[in-house]
Specification:
It contains 7 helices and 9 strands. Strands 3-4-5-2-1-6-7-9-8 form a 9-stranded mixed sheet. Helices cover 26% and strands 31% of the residues. It has a single domain, classed as Vaccinia Virus protein VP39 (Rossmann fold), CATH 3.40.50. It is globular, with a radius of gyration of 17 Å. By secondary structure, it is α/β, with parallel strands linked by helices. The relative contact order is 0.15.
Length: 222
């Protein structure tokens, strides 16, 4: 899967993964991270998700990462947020979009997330991943999960995954099994499954999927 794939999806409006309201699993389970007001939350592959608005309204500062610049611009426009833009000093394709909602900052970094460093993000207190791990084909997930851990210095994470018969539908979103979650994260995290429920996939309504919510707490903090 290459950048052109996601750019094409945004340009053609094929963004069924985007939601009009904050994700119900975010609102139900985010408190499990036990982050204090004013904490900084990283949202990988954030798109134009209104989940970032919900997080800011709860008192959190938000740092999103998004490959497609058009998605970031749409986020600020649709939520009537003014913003400033700064280029990355070492990567011409990366930009930092800074905005505020009430007293909370919302930053979206556009471009290649794999070119970022922990210094680019600053201190991160927690990670919310609803759309990133399941957007990655299997061969990319280990690299992705390692990059997020490096960027956020093993901050606690709330991850939402789906599990289904991959042979019945090719994705994205891709199926992620519980054993794969363990493979990617168990070396550094204690992993707790908070939810395991059956639902349907919007992109393939006849396909039954298992939706799962995972809480990852770093072993170093236990």
């Amino acid at each position: 899967m290459n950048p052109e794939f996601w750019q094409s999806r945004w340009q053609s409006g094929r963004i069924g993964f985007n939601q009009d309201a904050a994700n119900s699993l975010l609102t139900a389970y985010f408190s499990a991270l036990k982050l204090g007001v004013g904490s900084r939350v990283f949202v990988p592959f954030c798109g134009k998700s209104v989940d970032m608005i919900w997080l800011a309204n709860q008192g959190y500062h938000v740092v999103g990462a998004e490959l497609v610049e058009e998605a970031a611009l749409a986020f600020f426009k649709e939520n009537d947020l003014d913003f400033t833009v700064m280029p990355h000093l070492n990567h011409a394709g990366i930009r930092f979009y800074h905005s505020k909602l009430n007293k909370q900052t919302i930053t979206i970094i556009t471009g290649d997330m794999f070119a970022l460093t922990a210094k680019d993000l600053g201190e991160i207190d927690g990670v919310y991943d609803r759309a990133a791990l399941i957007a990655m084909p299997k061969e990319m997930r280990a690299t992705y999960s390692a990059q997020v851990q490096a960027l956020c210095q093993t901050a606690p994470q709330l991850i939402i995954t789906i599990n289904y018969d991959q042979s019945a539908w090719q994705g994205p979103p891709f199926s992620v099994t519980p054993n794969q979650v363990l493979d990617y994260y168990q070396d550094r995290y204690v992993i707790t499954q908070l939810l395991n429920t059956t639902s349907v996939l919007n992109a393939a309504p006849t396909l039954s999927v298992t939706e799962q919510v995972w809480l990852l707490i770093p072993k170093s903090k236990l």
